[in-house]
Amino acid sequence: MIDVIVTEEDYREALERFLQIGGAPKSEEELWEMYQLMRLMEEYEDKNCRFD
């Protein structure tokens, strides 16, 4: 499971995993992982994808 997103490559890996499980989580663990990935991706986007 992905615990931190630091680089663009990490982000892409997290996004790929999110898309794999996002359509239909098969277990509580995958559901938890999906929410974890969303939180991590949002944090990365807030720090790295701002258009001020």
What is the structure about, briefly put?
With 52 residues, this protein is mainly α.
Can you tell me about this structure?
Helix 1 (8-22) runs antiparallel to helix 2 (28-48). The protein is an all-alpha fold and 52 residues long. The chain has one domain (8-48). It has 2 helices and no strands. The protein is elongated and about 40 Å long. It has helices at 8-22, 28-48.
Question: What's the topology here?
Answer:
Blueprint: H1 8-22, H2 28-48
Helix pairs in contact: 1-2
In whole angstroms, the N-to-C terminal distance is 32 Å
| Shape estimate | elongated
Largest sheet: none
| Mean pLDDT, all residues | 91
Sheet/helix structural class: mainly alpha
Proportion of helical residues: 55-70%
Keywords:
2 helices, single chain, 52 residues
